[in-house]
Structures are given as C-alpha cells and as structure tokens.
Amino acid sequence: MEGGEGLLATLVYHQHKSEGDVQFVTEPCEPQQVAVMRHSRGKHIAPHRHHERLRNVTRTTEVLIIRRGSVLINLYTSEGDWVTSHALVTGDLIVLHAGAHSLFFQEDTELVEVKQGPYAGRESDKVEIQVTQGAHDAAPRAA
Fold it and tell me: What is the pLDDT of residues 19-47, one digit of tens each?
C-alpha cells in the first residue's frame, strides 16, 4: 500500500498461498524482512545461524499478526493525511513500513506485534499525530 512517502504497508491476508517454498512479501531493501513459507512434511532445514552484521535502521517497522478477532487499521502519511483503511481478521498479517497508523478493535482481539528493539520507552518511541483528513479511531473510515 503506497502513500505520500512510498510504501506504507504490506498486507498478507490469511488466505494467501505462497508460491513455492519461501516467498518474501517484503522488498530486500526493507529493514524488516517477512516471508511466507510452505514446506512439505519431512523437509529438514539444516541447523544454522546468521552472520553478525551492522545495520543502520532509522525507522521502526511493525509486524502485526491477528491471532483472533478483527481490527480496522487506518493508514496515514506521516503528516496525518488518511490514505486507506483495511479490516484485518484472524490469520491476517500486516507489515507497517512508514507513515502513521491507528487501530480500531471491532471485537475482542488478540494479536502479536513484532518490531525492532531495543525499546526506548513510549515517549522516545511513539509520536502521536493530528489526523487532517477524515478517519480517526472513534469513527473509522471504510476503505
């Protein structure tokens, strides 16, 4: 999903089927890499580790995985201009690359959030924005 500053999010719906063993849904240049994998019973991936490598990460990306329930996510530019909204349900995954977002829980929901660390605390990590066009948490805008 594109916005004023480029790629805002990558959405993987629960019914997504990978094309082959490993299908990356993020671009190689993104600081958070996400792949959908499908392997046949009995396949073995050899024990391995990854090289230590200095990486320069200047923005926090988040991955949200909806384990149960549903949530409406609103995506905005960094300045607060509404771009789009999507209803996420059980099994959906979204990678938030840039811009801003808000969540409106449509029912009791359990989700997993993955982002880079270390966590520096709410005040150092999060910037609340004023929404300038339409959608907000109390009255979400439909896509």
Answer: 778 888 888 888 888 888 888 899 999 99
Q: Is residue 78 part of a domain?
A: yes
Domain, as residue range, for 103: 2-17+58-125
User: Residue 63 sits in a domain of what CATH number?
Assistant: 2.60.120.10
Asked whether residue 74 is assigned to any structural domain, the reply reads yes
Does this model's pTM top 0.70? My answer is yes
Q: Which amino acid is at 80?
A: G
User: Under a CB-based contact definition with an 8 Å cutoff, are residues 12 and 89 in contact?
Assistant: no
